[in-house]
Amino acid sequence: MRYDEPLFRPPSEAASFILQATLGCSWNACTYCAMYRGKRYQVRPVAEVLADISEGGARFAEDIRHVFVADGDPLGMSLDYWEPILLALATAFPRLRRVSTYATARNLLEKSPGDLKRLRDLGLSLLYIGPESGDDLTLHRIAKGATAAEHIKAAHKAKAAGMEQSLMFLLGAGGRERSEEHARASGRLATAMDPRFLSTLTLTVVPGTPIARLEDKGRFELPDVPGLLTELRWFVEETHPSAAIFRANHASNYLPIGGRLPRDREAILASIDEALAGRAPLRPEWARGL
Ligand code: SF4
């Protein structure tokens, strides 16, 4: 397998076969994101991708149940690319149960309902989408490329095609100034998009990114730790999905918690309150990661 670094995947895809169909991210504009800066977006030649699938099949045919298609937003690829890739995956891995990929609201909106249904029928069943915020002003400031309403429309298209969503929201993305608006609107957007999986991460300001330059100029300030925990509380208060697995255990978070929403809402809120009162251990700064 040829991998072009850096290569990212969601934590929940740690045991999956990672197939790098694109390099970089076609959007590459989010102000907090350092993942693919300096990496030119490319769709890899399909022959190379098929060769990787063939090699993976020869080595792991019976072991692979999950495949994650990288890099940044492969859903932007046309069906001409996706179809041979998904057909080859089904042949190479006979026990395959799930194919997933990162997606943006923009590339979901660009696909027709028929194209999305065709992708689902060929096996693409889970989309990782990072709205990061439900607050339109915050979305504009972080250059996410889509509004809350566009994210809802995209989610409805994915659902209509039978695809599941795993959503990510970013505590701190609104800065101190938009903290409550950002957190509460994020919970409302999560409710409206109604995912199967839902997670919160915490913003880390990475040197060299546009948001770091704003911070240097005093135009962006990350909430402190109690402020971030309060955002988490506001987010959970506002989030009412029909049945979602919620995780806030990403390495960037100070309080690793999780559960099911709405079932475990009160227990999750009680855990956050314990942490806000200083009675629960927080992840130390040295143990945090991006
Ligand atoms: S869409 Fe994702 S990978 Fe692309 S710039 Fe934004 S956060 Fe980074």
What can you tell me about this protein's structure?
The protein has 290 residues and is of the alpha/beta class. The protein has one domain: Aldolase class I (TIM Barrel, Alpha-Beta Barrel), CATH 3.20.20. It is built from ten helices and ten strands. It has helices at residues 46-60, 79-92, 105-110, 113-121, 136-141, 148-160, 179-193, 210-216, 225-238, 265-276, and strands at 17-20, 22-23, 42-43, 66-70, 98-103, 124-132, 164-171, 197-202, 244-248, 257-261. The strands form two sheets. The chain has an eight-stranded mixed β-sheet. A two-stranded antiparallel ribbon has the order 2-3. Helix 7 links the parallel strand 7 and strand 8. The radius of gyration is 19 Å and the shape is globular. The relative contact order is 0.10. Iron/sulfur cluster binds at residues 25, 27-30, 33, 35-36, 72-73, 104, 130.
Give a short synopsis of this structure.
The protein is α/β, with parallel strands linked by helices and 290 residues long. It contains ten helices and ten strands.
Largest β-sheet summary: 8 strands, mixed
CATH topology: TIM Barrel
From the coordinates shown, what is the CATH architecture?
Answer: Alpha-Beta Barrel
- What is the global morphology? globular
Q: Can you count the beta strands?
A: 10
Overall pLDDT: 95
Percent of residues in helical segments?
Answer: 25-40%
Rounded to the nearest angstrom, the distance between the terminal CA atoms is: 26 Å
The fraction of residues assigned to DSSP E strands is 15-25%
**Series of H and E elements:** EEEHEHEHHEHHEHEHHEEH
Q: In CATH, what is the class?
A: Alpha Beta
Structure ligands: iron/sulfur cluster
Question: pLDDT below 50 for ≥5 consecutive residues: which ranges?
Answer: none
Strand order within the widest sheet? 1-4-5-6-7-8-9-10
Question: Structural class, please?
Answer: alpha/beta
Number of discrete domains: 1
Query: Could you tell me the radius of gyration in angstroms?
Result: 19 Å
CATH homologous superfamily designation? Aldolase class I
How many helices? The count is 10
